[in-house]
Amino acid sequence: MIDEGRGATEDTSQTQDSGEFARRAAELDAADPLASYLEEFVPVDEPGFVAYLDGNSLGRPTRRAAAELGELVRGAWGTDLIRSWTDGADPWMEWPERVGDEIAAACLGAAAGQTVVADSTTVLLYKLARAALTARPGRDEIVLDTDNFPTDRYVLEGIAGECGMSLRWIDADPREGVHAEQVAAAVGDRTALVVLSHVAYRSGWIADLPAIAAVSHGAGALFLADLCHSVGAVPVELDAWGVDLAVGCTYKFLGGGPGAPAFGYICRDLQDQVRQPIQGWMGRADPFTMGPGYQPAAGIRSLVSGTPPIVGMVPVRAGVGLVARAGIDAIRCKSIELTTLAIDIVDSWPDALGVRVSSPRDAARRGGHVTISRGDFRQVNAALWQRGVIPDFRAPDGIRLGLAPLSTSYADVVRALDVARTVMTRGAGAP
Ligand SMILES: Cc1ncc(COP(=O)(O)O)c(C=O)c1O
Ligand SMILES: Nc1c(O)cccc1C(=O)C[C@H](N)C(=O)O
Known about the structure:
The protein has 431 residues and is an alpha/beta fold. The chain has twelve helices and 13 strands. It has helices spanning 12-31, 63-77, 95-108, 121-134, 150-163, 180-186, 209-218, 238-241, 310-326, 328-348, 377-386, 410-426, and strands at residues 51-52, 115-118, 141-145, 166-170, 191-197, 222-226, 245-248, 262-266, 356-357, 369-373, 389-390, 392-394, 398-402. The strands form three sheets. It has a seven-stranded mixed beta sheet, sandwiched between helices. A four-stranded antiparallel beta sheet has the order 9-10-13-12, covered by helices on one side. A two-stranded parallel sheet has the order 1-11. The chain starts with 11 loop residues before the first helix and ends in a 5-residue tail after the last helix. Residues 120-122, 149, 151-152, 197, 201, 226, 228-229, 249 line the site of pyridoxal-5'-phosphate (PLP). This is Kynureninase. Its EC number is 3.7.1.3.
């Protein structure tokens, strides 16, 4: 419980500490090569707003997205109408592969022709996992971990039931994530597929994808990576790391907006061996022949099922454009500085506050968010939202500080954590 009694005395050490961190933040902001990107986002129009620390769940909208959505309504949609699907310099029919390639080049380390944008992460995960199983007939096990995002666990449980497969669970430490050694111990000659997240949604742990791909392949299995929490924040090298299939969302660090479509990747060598389960007309070779029977389109296009979500892809293109311009390595450098600053501030808090850092302290193993824990953080998070500080709460006791590098300043981190310390010192119920 929060110690309500502490509010009676002024915490002078807070004033001193926040002054020091404010000076450090000012220096970092002044030297930040990505500082100009803060202006690329639609400003929050709310009195008393302090800072948004949930870019790892829903990224902020870019000004370009707002402008380009308006242009779409007036131009390609409003004026060119149905012709936009097939005519002009950038026909909508080609957007799944085109935007997929843009994401691949900016932040997946993947050559063109292996990525499409479609569906939601959940649906694409289902399609990719089912597709992978078609390339490993006779094997009846899927390896996954206990702390993966719920949708991953549920989708795989459903597939196991549908396809008569068994699930082999890796017990993941919720304060870290899955280690390659655990995968090595779990896979065997029955394993068809290994499915894990690159960055753990709870702790922010970065899994060693090249090592996990290697141990999966050593057992003859395929490896599918969920990149939701890494894409646009942590460099990814799908081709070089030997990842077979990948999925990720575009509404976090890529700024695609609520419900934006997902992306799916199938490495080129595998594309002819797999068959995804939802045979729709948009994934058929030459859809407008509308002929009998389904013949999959060549290559990655066959992962598409229905009409591409064009409106949803407009903000994705704007966000990916920003990431491409800023460069994923520069984004990662700022991300490490932001999360290090957040941890240093939390470490400076009095022990009596009882806050623990639940993310890896090693920056090389930590993604774009920092999770801190305390028993009453559900109430503290609600109090922070009322005071204009917006992180998120994940059960049982974690507040995630999602520090999107392009839209978060170092001063934001200091201001937000200052409010958090005050809330905890005075009590979440205090005015
Ligand atoms: C790791 C991970 N996988 C999947 C999802 C969700 O997928 P969807 O966009 O289908 O809700 C999320 C976030 O919502 C996530 O963090
Ligand atoms: N996709 C979300 C939604 O539709 C509503 C609220 C949150 C989300 C999220 O993205 C959750 C997020 N993937 C997480 O890591 O918790």
